[in-house]
Amino acid sequence: MNRVYRLIYAIAWPFFNLFHPCRVIGRERIPEGGALLCPNHTRNADPLLVVFAMGQGRGPQIMAKEELRKVPLVGYVLHKMGLIFVKRGASDISAIRSALKTLKEGRKLLIFPEGTRHEETGEGKTGAAMIAIRAGVPILPMYIPAKKLWFRRTPVVFGEPFIPFTEDRKPTVEDYRAATVELMARINSLEEQAK
User: Fold this and answer.
1) Quick one: 144 exposed, middle or buried, by C-beta within 10 A (0-12, 13-18, 19+)?
2) For residue 64, what are the β-bridge partners?
3) 126 within 8 A of 173, measured Cβ to Cβ
4) Which end of the chain is flanked by fewer CB atoms within 10 Å, N or C?
5) Is residue 192 packed enough to be buried (19+ CB in 10 Å), middle (13-18) or exposed (0-12)?
6) Is 3.40.1130.10 the CATH classification of the domain at 3-194?
7) Element (H, E) at 155
8) Can you give the residue ranges of every domain in the chain?
9) What digits encode the pLDDT tens for the residues 50-68?
């Protein structure tokens, strides 16, 4: 967490905790060391819910769409917070290298595997699985309900971490797809815990 990240956290948390507090389920499942946090994505508030559910001082590095960098002031602040911006729909080598570096340094990285918001859990893209497999880190599936009521606690569920690929060979595109299918199934299975 850099200084700007910590400052924004300290400013945003009291307001967010008042209007959109979260009820954390399974925080003890967060593994030590590098891990890829993969929640479903339904609303703009989801990244904040994940960051605040992690707890102060444990905030993950965040991967976000390149378009956010161009939003006046917001883009500047997010850049200073150290977000990794990724060009969607392209093979963004620079963003992938930054993501791998983050994980190999033993830090947490937040990626929404669907790539964009969906009212219901959508189909995952293979990028998250590919990054986790290449970095050799576990994936931590997460679930956040689409319905978020003002002044009511929104459940944020941490699932069990899993290693997406364990074979002693170079992974293939099919391996990335299989890991993505497993990840999305694990995310969906957490819905019951949010009730």
Assistant:
1) buried
2) 85
3) yes
4) C
5) exposed
6) yes
7) strand 154-158
8) 3-194
9) 999 998 878 899 999 888 8
